[in-house]
């Protein structure tokens, strides 16, 4: 019998995981990550979130590691994770749909200057914007990262009526999206958009990629939406850009340190909207369905998408 160990949601979540997999894949033996009766040598698959360093390496017959989230840095930060074992990022339709909805909300919040209304409500002041409000047709949105989440987000923004461009390390083509690629295309991409949506994975090349100089190239009024990874944005540069009005508004869902410390000046900044890393939170049901699909494919010797490539870092 194929064995799957799970470290996601703690022991309290195991009954739900078991019930889901009993329906989706009855032949699968589902065990808790910390079950002392489980022999690590008999584990075929591991579905994990922030596994303790060294634990995966003891599972010497692993066929695949499945991340409980879209990102995998919570696994690859372990120096001993078994790099010869396929590492699969979380996928399925729900995370992409959630990310599309979140980014659409964030872009409209910047478009209509929602932080101004929030501050007015907190201060009980009837605050109204001066001048004519922009419409979606006036706004140029740039999506930085055109992968499994960035591409559907860019397409959704096009359908919503925005002018959309995209940037990736390698050339991409998306209907309705002006695409740029590589180092040579980055400046042209930045100078052509006023709101930057950061959806890059965290790699050595992307860490700290959003600097003051990057934000300064955006058209005014400039906005930033970070739903990729916290370390992609240099926080000191972000604050500098907000304070000197180089950047008008920021919507932030991810941070270098999470939870965001109470001492962070971002909490109280009038031009910042903060959410607690919730842009794409797939349900256990949707994740179980995706994991079952992946395991079935691997058991049949098929290739699966969203496999982590160490050479690319994502």
Question: Can you describe what's shown?
Answer:
Keywords: NAD, Oxidoreductase, Pyruvate. This is Glyoxylate/hydroxypyruvate reductase A. InterPro entries: D-isomer_DH_NAD-bd, NAD(P)-bd_dom_sf. One of its GO terms (molecular function) is oxidoreductase activity. The chain is α/β, with parallel strands linked by helices. It folds into 2 domains: about 5-90 and about 280-300, Rossmann fold (3-Layer(aba) Sandwich), CATH 3.40.50; about 95-275, Rossmann fold. It is built from 9 helices and 12 strands. Strands 8-7-6-9-10-11-12 form a 7-stranded parallel sheet. A 5-stranded parallel sheet has the order 2-1-3-4-5, covered by helices on one side. It is elongated. The mean pLDDT is about 95.
Outline the fold blueprint.
Layout: E1 3-7, H1 14-24, E2 29-32, E3 45-48, E4 64-67, H2 73-76, E5 87-88, H3 93-111, H4 114-123, E6 140-144, H5 150-159, E7 163-168, E8 178-181, H6 182-191, E9 195-198, H7 212-216, E10 223-226, H8 235-243, E11 249-252, E12 272-274, H9 284-299
Parallel strand pairs: 1-2, 1-3, 3-4, 4-5, 6-7, 6-9, 7-8, 9-10, 10-11, 11-12
């Amino acid at each position: 019998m194929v064995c799957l160990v799970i470290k996601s949601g703690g022991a309290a979540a195991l009954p739900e995981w078991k019930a889901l997999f009993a329906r989706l894949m009855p032949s699968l033996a589902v065990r808790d990550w910390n079950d002392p009766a489980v022999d690590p040598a008999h584990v075929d698959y591991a579905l994990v979130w922030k596994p303790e360093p060294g634990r995966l390496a003891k599972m010497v017959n692993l066929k695949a590691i499945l991340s409980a989230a879209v990102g995998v840095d919570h696994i690859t930060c372990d120096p001993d994770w078994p790099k010869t074992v396929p590492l699969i990022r979380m996928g399925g339709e729900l995370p992409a749909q959630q990310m599309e909805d979140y980014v659409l909300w964030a872009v409209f919040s910047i478009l209509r200057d929602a932080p101004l209304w929030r501050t007015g409500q907190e201060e009980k002041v009837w605050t109204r914007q001066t001048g004519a409000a922009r419409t979606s047709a006036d706004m140029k949105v740039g999506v930085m990262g055109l992968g499994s989440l960035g591409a559907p987000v860019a397409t959704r923004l096009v359908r919503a009526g925005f002018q959309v461009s995209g940037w990736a390390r390698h050339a991409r083509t998306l209907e309705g999206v002006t695409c740029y690629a590589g180092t040579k295309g980055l400046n042209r991409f930045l100078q052509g958009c006023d709101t930057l949506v950061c959806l890059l994975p965290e790699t050595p090349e992307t860490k700290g990629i959003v600097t003051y100089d990057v934000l300064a190239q955006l058209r005014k009024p400039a906005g930033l939406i970070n739903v990729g990874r916290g370390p992609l944005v240099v926080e000191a540069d972000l604050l500098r850009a907000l304070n000197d009005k180089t950047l008008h508004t920021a919507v932030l869902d991810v941070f270098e340190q999470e939870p965001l410390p109470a001492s962070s000046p971002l909490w109280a900044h009038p031009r910042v909207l903060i959410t607690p890393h919730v842009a794409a939170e797939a349900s256990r049901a949707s994740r179980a369905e995706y994991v079952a699909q992946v395991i079935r494919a691997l058991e049949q010797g098929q290739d699966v998408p969203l496999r982590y490539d160490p050479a690319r870092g994502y």
